[in-house]
Amino acid sequence: MKDGQSRPMHKRVFSLAWKILLPVVIGLSVVVCLFYREFNAGVWEAVHFTPRVIMCIGLAWLFMLGRDAGLSWRFHTLTDGHLSWLQSIRVSYLCEFTSCITPSAVGGSALGMVFMNREGIELGRATTLMMTTLFLDELFFVVSLPIVMLVVPYKELFGFGESTFTVGLQTVFWITYFGIALWTLLLFLGIIVRPHAIHAMLNRLFRFRWLRRWAEKADELGSNMEATGAAIRKRPIGWWLEIFGGTVMSWTSRYLVVNALFLGFAPSADQLVVFARQFVVWVVLMVSPTPGSAGISEWLFTTYYGDLLDSASMALVIALFWRIISYYAYLIIGACIVPGWVRKRIKN
Fold first, then answer.
1. What is the mean pLDDT of residues 243-253?
2. Distances in Å between the alpha carbon of 225 and those of 1, 133, 187, 193, 222?
3. Which of 78, 102, 128, 263 has the highest CB neighbour count under 10 A?
4. Helical segments of the chain, H only
5. What is the C-alpha to C-alpha distance for residues 251 and 255, in angstroms, rounded to an integer?
6. What is the Cβ-side half-sphere exposure of residue 192, based on CA atoms within 13 angstroms?
């Protein structure tokens, strides 16, 4: 029996290790290819790790901590303090870790309901809370873009010219953005306005033969919307402002990581444009098929931000620091947290 029990554990460990290594291999392979094609050794001569550059790299790490603080604040508030600050931080890191090892299009953060349940939150309530966080994240993207486009000219937001990359970027962005907007509208109607009506509409829609295979999931989605609506519709405005404040803090801090790196390595770049382009980057990466957008993130960043820099090589340097701080660090943290977290929950 002992051997029989050890084999499944070894398989789970191997599966976790494989899920961690795969995005690392994909990401680093793309970086190596880009360096081989674009890198100019003279760039390293221009990169001096002066006190200012080191301070800006430290500032980038500080902004990532701000992202963690915002999400932890949101989890703590959503659960009315039932998740302690330590538990909220742990759930935040676990959500980010699963996002790193699953395709962005799938959305690893959806497992947050499992993590909250293991931390003592009843599963039905945890599902309700994750629906709320999903709505808040999507709402942030939908509301932010019009504001960004009011302050940053369209051509500077997407890059000048009519290259294949620019046209393709705009196409993917707008299709994804309107998809997010429709999904946000559905969540708003299904959670806040008419949850029962939306649930009934989904059930009718998925009775059609070509949609029938997803009927069970659609019914589950509708049920979750109704439960979420019943739980949060009567919440005071202060509660909504607080959890949306945590959402804004987390996403804004994540975007500012890139500003800090540009401030260190390319201080002449327009910081407002650097910040605004992060909205485009993260919307496009939402449909990435690779785990944690590995490979696609590095290529997209290097190509998209290249026109703000003197060389593609410098864009690669900044992209590498960006991914280390905002991605690889979470892989390492998650790999350290998950084994102990799983063992503790199994014992309980």
1. 94
2. 43, 12, 7, 11, 5
3. 78
4. 2-38, 42-46, 51-78, 85-101, 112-118, 123-151, 154-158, 164-188, 195-205, 215-232, 237-265, 271-285, 296-304, 312-323, 329-347
5. 6
6. 11
Task: For residue 149, give the 3-state DSSP assignment.
Answer: helix
Instruction: Report how far residue 59's alpha carbon sits from residue 260's, in angstroms, rounded to the nearest whole number.
Output: 6
What is the pLDDT averaged over residues 181-199?
A: 82
Would you tell me how many other CB atoms lie within 10 Å of the CB of residue 339? 12
Q: Would you give the DSSP letter of residue 223?
A: H
Whole-angstrom distance, CA of residue 142 vs CA of residue 136 = 10
Tokens of 164: 């294949």
Query: What is the arithmetic mean of pLDDT over 283-306?
Result: 82
Cα distance between residue 300 and residue 126, in whole Å? 34
Phi and psi at 329, nearest 5°, equal: -60, -40
Hey, which residues does 291 pair with through a beta bridge?
103
Place of tokens 């992209």: 319
Decide: 280 and 175 in contact? Cβ < 8 Å.
Answer: no
d(CA 108, CA 128): 17
Tokens of 165: 């990359």
Encoded tokens for 11? 């398989």
181 CB neighbour count, 10 Å cutoff: 15
Q: Are 73 and 249 in contact (CB under 8 A)?
A: yes
Give me the pLDDT at residue 251, please. Answer: 94
